[in-house]
Amino acid sequence: MSKSDYNALPYESFPFAGFHPQRLSVISQLFGLTTPKLDKFRYLEIGCAAGGNLIPLAIEYEQAEFVGIDYAEIQINDGQRVIDDLALNNVRLKTQDILDVTNDLGQFDFIIAHGVYSWVPIQVREKLICLCRDHLSPEGIACISYNTQPGWKVRSAVRDMLRHKTQDCVDLKTRAHEAKAFAQVMLNSFQGNPDSYAVMMKSELQQAYEAPLNILVHDYLADINNPVYFHQFNEEIASASLKYIGDTHFYTMRVLNLTDEITTNLANNPESAIEMEQYTDYATNRYFRRSLITHTEQNVQRLVQKEAYSKLCYSLSSQPKPVKANLQAGIQVAFSFGAGTTISSKEPMIKFILSELSSHWPKTLSYDALLKTARTKLKNKVASSALSASLSEQLHSLYGQNFIDAYVHKLNLVNKAGEKPKVNPLVCYQAKHQNWVTNQRHERRALDDFSRNLIQLLDGTRTKKELRQALEVMVQSGILPLLDEHKNPVTDKAVIAQAVRNTLDNSLKILAGHALLVG
User: Fold this and answer.
1) How far apart are alpha carbons 320 and 362 in whole angstroms?
2) What is the pTM of this model?
3) Which of 136, 260, 263, 362 is most buried when burial is the number of CB atoms within 10 A of its CB?
4) How far is the C-alpha of 475 from the C-alpha of 495, rounded, in Å?
5) Does 420 fall in a domain?
6) Could you tell me if 189 and 250 lie in one domain?
7) Looking at the 3D structure of the chain, how many domains does it have?
């Protein structure tokens, strides 16, 4: 895509939890690496858009330095406006072509390149790899996202179809709308067809039809989209003296439940782990990766170092539904989560971990804290001599199934609103300008009108009583609509006061559950 195309239909700028320094460090530590200290580190994002990923990190890590470069001037200007408004001095964005990056950029402990590798000319892609090599600190971690084969085999057919259909459109937005409309037409034409190819095409057309316009343009209509096989990516980074560590999402790596034969094979031949992941991509028709890489001098262990789990902190991966768990062996308990996932287990340690993290959601608990509580709650249920090993083993299993998240240090958040509830300054700012905010887990959370107005008051200076009074004034003045069952504005002050009281208490619980409140 040209610079004018990027400016005409900018790529949306969001936080990505997988690119958080903690998440990157955890994956690296599990494979035996010493990672940069999370205080005065330097973090570079190539293709940073408007800083949606960088700016929340700059708020969280005040002593670190963040740099973002992007091709789209409009995006950079939008991000710089936020930085200026929040008076942040540890993050800077610049409009720059990757080919123009020079050595004076310096070295970084973390380098992120999201949405770049597969969508640029070969010379830019080569420069990107060299940039990671030349600007990554000795123990640094880079992360590159890219489209993969074989997943893009069928998806490329849809891409070719949409590009062919819209080839005469000059205006980018018009072309995107026409492509979306044609995807729906083709989707309808496959309905009711049980043929295996039709089933695959329906799935891919649905994906294209539901994609936001900027994603549709970026992946389906842009001139360049070069998916690669995982082994090809590894060959390319190896030629630049870089090596693969793992993926941002541990559960996508098939390193669990290995037989003794496979474990021995991996220990004797680390390269077979790469082959295993390649064959997994074949088997799962994988179409996208976010790969962590480092210098070849780093001693990446291909078997997970389970002792690393004792140094980490944990939370559930999504908000749990309340459950009272019987920890006795042999009694099955089902755990459900807001994301629609469930897990059932009779294993005392698994039930303990999930129930303990559920009761503290969204807070993080250290390994030591979990072990200490386990000694009490699992007494006579798990042999005391086996507690530590069992805890590490089940944390490994649950992390590998994406039921829990792991962190290097505890997150700055609370699970209950205090007398003067507070969110971080960026959340206040975002609530004023848009309908979503970035939580303390580096995730995006959508807001309703009441929450948007409430969050703008949560600077830590107002008591709950003062919050109620401020919200009542907003309702009475029409700033915050409150409608009765007939959709008419409520004007009775007593009714308004009671409605605000009830809604405030519930909203604060929701904000706490969404990991938005800080201490």
Assistant:
1) 9
2) 0.93
3) 362
4) 11
5) no
6) no
7) 4
